[in-house]
Structure formats: C-alpha cells, structure tokens
Specification:
Number of domains: 2
Structural class: mainly alpha
CATH superfamily of the largest domain: HUPs
Helix content: 55-70%
CATH architecture of the largest domain: 3-Layer(aba) Sandwich
Largest sheet: 3 strands, parallel
Bound molecules: tryptophan
Strand order of the largest sheet: 1-2-3
CATH class of the largest domain: Alpha Beta
Number of strands: 5
Strand content: 5-15%
Amino acid sequence: MNTTPQTAASDASASGPSADTLGMSAAQARNAVLEEQILKDPGQFRVLTGDRPTGRLHLGHYFGTLHNRVRLQDLGVEMLVVIADYQVLTDRDVADNLAGHVEELVLDYLAIGVNPARSTIFTHSAVPALNQLMLPFLSLVSVAELGRNPTVKDEITHSRQSSVSGLMFTYPVHQAADILFCKANLVPVGQDQLPHLEVTRTIARRFNDRYGNGTAVFPQPDALLSSAPLLLGTDGTKMSKSRGNAITLAADADETARLLKGAKTDSERHITYDPATRPEVSSLLLLAALCQNRTPEQVAADIGSAGAAALKKTVTESVNEYLAPIRARRTEYAQDRTYLRQTLREGNERARAVADATLAEVRAAMNSKY
Ligand code: TRP
C-alpha cells in the first residue's frame, strides 16, 4: 500500500546525530510546553493511558506514571485508562489468570484515586470497534518498520518464547488503536513507550493523508514523559514484578518492612545520595524522598552516619505512611466486588460508545459504508 513513506525515524532525525537521542530531547522540550498548556487549559486535552494486566502494581509503576495520571485527572484532564488484556497475550503465562489480574488492576486504580465518575477504565477486549481499527491501521505500516521498533526488539530478545507471534510483532499497531479510538492527544509514558507513540503518530498522519480528504480524522498525540527517575527494586536492578524485587501497593506494612530489610545496600556507613556510584543506597533515598515530598539529599543528610539500617528504617516508615491511605482504600474496595464489576462495565460501555463513533467516521472516510 502506498502511503506517505515517511517513518518516525526520519522525522526525528531532521536536524541532528542520533534519532534516539533526539526523540528523547525533543519530547523533553515539548514536555515543558505541554505542562504549561495543561495548567492553563486542561479541557483541551484527552489522555489515554493504560497497563498490561500482569498482576499488582508496584512503587515503580506508582512513581513512574500512576501518580502523574491522577494528577492530570485532578487538574481536570479527561482520561481513559485501558487495561490491555489483549496485549498481555504477547507475554506468556500471565494469560492464565487474566480475570484475576484485571480485577487487581481495577483495585489498584481505584485505590490510588482514579475516579470512575471522571475517568473511564476499560478493557480493550470489550470494545470491538477499537479492535477493528487495527486492520486499516496495519495497512499503513510496513513489515520493515514494525521490525525496527526497539522496544519490541528488546521484548523479543528477553521473551522466553521460542518464536515471535504475529501479535507480538504488531502490538504497537494495536496500541495505536488504543490511543486513537478515542482521539487522545496526550499519552503519559515512560521512555520505553516512545517508539510506540511514534508508530501511533505515523499511523494518524498517514490515515489523515490518505483518507482524510483535507481534514484530520485523528490527532497526532503527544507523549508526556514522566519526570520521576527510575526506582530500583530491592536487589538493585530495575523494579519489576518478574524479578521478584518489587514492593506492591497492596503489600501490607509488615511485608514492606521485611522486603526493605532485605534490600541491597553497600558497606559505606555514611549515607549519601550519589546515583552513579551508590545506586542501591540512592534509590532507597529517592524512594523515601518521593514519599516525603523532599529531596533525596535532604533525606541523606538526616541519616548521616547512622548507616544502612537507619536508612532502611526511614524508607520503611516513609513508604508505609505514604501508602497507608491507598492501602486502606484498596482493602475497602476489595470487599465490594459488585462495585468493581460495575466500574468496569460502565467504563466498557462508555468506551464502546466512543469507539463506535470513531469507527463510523473511519468507515465514512474510507468510503466503506454500505
Ligand atoms: N504497552 C503498555 C505497557 O506495557 C500498556 C499499554 C497498552 C498502553 N496500550 C496503551 C500504554 C496505550 C499507553 C497507551 O505498559
């Protein structure tokens, strides 16, 4: 299919050395402008964001993106949150307990303050018209482009599967449907999701060029990069559920204390914030600082020469205090299964109405209304 043969990479490399670096710094510069516009006029934005239902969310998710979503919602930005239950089929054994994982995710969302009266929580498998968008979208990207996506390449390298499924290869296009079905113009993401957002922007642009007849059917959504630095898990590597080094939002105070007690530190007794040379200690300081709304340097100064045990005690108290209201709400919601199901049912209904309208528009643009 002949569409504008312009790739994401060629856009980003217009004026500099590395497309990757430029993609990042361009997104960062754009961030400042976006933040200003959000404060001035939150009503002009629609956010689509979401997660794979792989289990309970942890502190890395929370300070990486969840916290920011609730902030946007509370500023008055319209938000849709997709529970990506088809995307999760790309990663192996999770699919076994999908319904359970979906419920845990809804619980986490409600606990952190996603408000279903304002924000729409839905699963993409419940929204047929969203999924139908994937077919025209697939026609707008080449196999070679799909093969160049660095995040997918990385996932393929690390997957424990012996072969690459068609869904694994094409899921960024499905993600474009997640974003474009509701014409979201803002997507809060971590750095690893930037290539997917470029796919989305490319598809939006090509669809408009090819079928739009001079009008833009789809917006080209902006990434809103999370500003929080990466939190490490208790073993000093990236916090992630599959590594068993994560502190979940749902963990209780005792479990949190136990996990943090076992956290890796170093042998230097004087506590300082120095992410380059003391990554483990610095990540613990950062975690305490995020919970206390202070800087990691301030937290380090408080502890001084009291050593790793004192650091862990501070972190444990800070995390438990910060999460206490979130955990209390989570426990409350967990007792009300009817409310959980109703939240999802209503979210799915709202998402379906939006997707049906967009698909009707797409079919009209493509001249396929019979
Ligand atoms: N790929 C995202 C992740 O792994 C989840 C996701 C699915 C998503 N669809 C999305 C994120 C749309 C943002 C927008 O976390």
